[in-house]
Amino acid sequence: SFGRITFGHGNDLQIYHDGNNSKLSHTGSGGLYIGANLFGIQNGAHTETYIDATNNGAVNLYYDNSKKLETRNWGISFTGNTVASGNVYAGGAAGFVFGASTSEGEYIYRNGNDIRVFAGGADRLTVDGDAGNVGIGSSSPSYKLDVSGGIRAGGKVTYEKSAASLTTTGYAVA
């Protein structure tokens, strides 16, 4: 049998070693709270940080002593890649922002039922969530593919007509 240090009514707080692992066990009613103005969890040699937390400040999570997640006054900040096994939700007006802020100019966002890509100071791509139309250079696409501007095709373009004619303006059809 290994020794235990016990506290509380009914010995509901215990510190002990079970032969393999050191354990802190709380089995009573209420919660277990640890208070500190600066709190950290490190490896046994105190050479690598796993978690640190500062009073009225950030909580940081580390992998191999490298900060990967930090809470900020505006939300959270990640370092490195993020892999999600489920859905990823983006609230807020800007949706998914590429760069440090929307002022850098590139983001994907929702406008009503539409999904839009904003780059270079304007909406560049719109997917109409109601009609299923896609607009390039058009924020209100009227066709399945609605392009405002020239189109370049590096390969064969096939037209399958559903009407009696194909009308072109300013271009020849070979």
Overview of this protein structure:
The protein has no helices and 14 strands. With 174 residues, it is mainly beta. The protein has a 6-stranded mixed β-sheet, with no helix packed on it. A 5-stranded antiparallel β-sheet has the order 4-5-6-7-8, with no helix packed on it. It has strands at residues 4-7, 13-17, 22-26, 38-42, 49-54, 59-63, 66-72, 75-78, 96-98, 106-111, 114-119, 122-127, 134-136, 145-147. It is elongated and about 90 Å long. A hairpin with a 5-residue loop joins β1 and β2. The mean pLDDT is 86.
Structural class: mainly beta
Overall shape: elongated
Q: What's the rounded overall pLDDT mean?
A: 86
- Report the β-strand fraction as a percent range: 35-45%
Report helical residue fraction: under 10%
The strand order across the widest sheet is 9-10-11-12-13-14
Cα-based radius of gyration, to the nearest Å: 29 Å
Number of helices: 0
Largest sheet: 6 strands, mixed
Low-confidence residue ranges: none
Number of strand segments: 14
**Spatial separation of the terminal alpha carbons:** 92 Å
Query: Which assembly state applies to the chains in this document?
Result: single chain
List keywords for this structure.
174 residues, 6-stranded mixed sheet, 5-stranded antiparallel sheet
Task: Please sum up the structure shown.
With 174 residues, this protein is mainly β. The protein is 0% helix and 39% strand.
Write the layout of secondary structure elements.
Blueprint lengths: L3 E4 L5 E5 L4 E5 L11 E5 L6 E6 L4 E5 L2 E7 L2 E4 L17 E3 L7 E6 L2 E6 L2 E6 L6 E3 L8 E3 L27
Parallel strand pairs: 13-14
Antiparallel strand pairs: 1-2, 2-3, 4-5, 5-6, 6-7, 7-8, 9-10, 10-11, 11-12, 12-13
